[in-house]
């Protein structure tokens, strides 16, 4: 079965995590990183989750999941160690057409959470269609070694240059020529080498291209 890859904007969006253990903690952290409004439902929670509650970073209901709790949420993660509860959450979400990821049970998911490499604006997601999260992690580790932190700086620069060109250049063909020149100018090599002078010269040459 082929999956449709997409990136979700969850900033300010209501998301629910059912479970309060270490696995749930990791899922909560990833949702908080992208600015989601997180609610947790679990009879017990880790010290870290409690810290987030104390810091007003999320809401928490210290009780078991109840039918209907998923309503109104964009994304739900079922991360308990009780199969019956995970099945209850998944069933609730399927009936309401809510995105649900049930940890380690692909049959109870309508989306999978990929292994991710982040470098500033660069996001690389790796999925094995739920076949082997361990393999996805291994691939992620290899990509982390290939794509260093300098890619974040590189893309921030390219973002700034793109905005400048869109503002100053009105001709579509010339815009495209400049964008292509910037992409092929070896700017990343200059950043990796710490050669600011060469970086400035290459940018100037690209911006003057027609």
Automatic annotation (TrEMBL):
A Pfam family per the record: NAD_binding_7
Record has Oxidoreductase as a keyword: yes
Known pathway: Porphyrin-containing compound metabolism; siroheme biosynthesis; sirohydrochlorin from precorrin-2: step 1/1
Biological process, per Gene Ontology: siroheme biosynthetic process
Enzyme Commission numbers on file: 1.3.1.76
Domain Siroheme synthase central residue range list: 119-145
EC category: oxidoreductase
Keywords: NAD, Oxidoreductase, Porphyrin biosynthesis
InterPro entries, sorted: Met8-like (IPR028161), NAD(P)-bd_dom_sf (IPR036291), SirC_C (IPR042518), Sirohaem_synthase_central (IPR028281), Sirohaem_synthase_N (IPR006367)
Keyword flag Oxidoreductase: yes
Enzymatic reactions: precorrin-2 + NAD(+) = sirohydrochlorin + NADH + 2 H(+)
Single GO MF annotation: precorrin-2 dehydrogenase activity
Transmembrane segments: none
Protein known as: precorrin-2 dehydrogenase
Species of the source: Heliomicrobium gestii (Heliobacterium gestii)
Lineage: Bacteria, Bacillati, Bacillota, Clostridia, Eubacteriales
């Amino acid at each position: 079965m082929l999956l449709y890859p997409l990136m979700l904007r969850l900033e300010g969006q209501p998301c629910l995590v059912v479970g309060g253990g270490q696995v749930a903690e990791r899922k909560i952290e990833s949702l908080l990183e992208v600015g989601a409004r997180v609610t947790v439902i679990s009879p017990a929670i880790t010290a870290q989750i409690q810290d987030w509650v104390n810091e007003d970073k999320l809401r928490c209901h210290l009780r078991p999941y109840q039918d209907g709790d998923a309503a109104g949420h964009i994304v739900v993660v079922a991360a308990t160690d009780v199969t019956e509860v995970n099945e209850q959450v998944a069933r609730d979400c399927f009936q309401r057409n809510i995105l649900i990821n049930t940890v380690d049970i692909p049959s109870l998911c309508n989306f999978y959470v990929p292994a991710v490499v982040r470098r500033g604006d660069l996001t690389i997601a790796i999925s094995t269609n739920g076949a082997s999260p361990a393999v996805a992690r291994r691939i992620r580790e290899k990509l982390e070694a290939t794509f260093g932190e300098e890619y974040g700086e590189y893309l921030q620069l390219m973002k700034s240059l793109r905005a400048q060109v869109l503002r100053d250049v009105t001709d579509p063909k010339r815009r495209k020529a400049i964008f292509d020149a910037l992409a092929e100018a070896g700017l990343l090599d200059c950043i990796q080498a710490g050669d600011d002078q060469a970086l400035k010269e290459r940018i100037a040459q690209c911006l003057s291209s027609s």
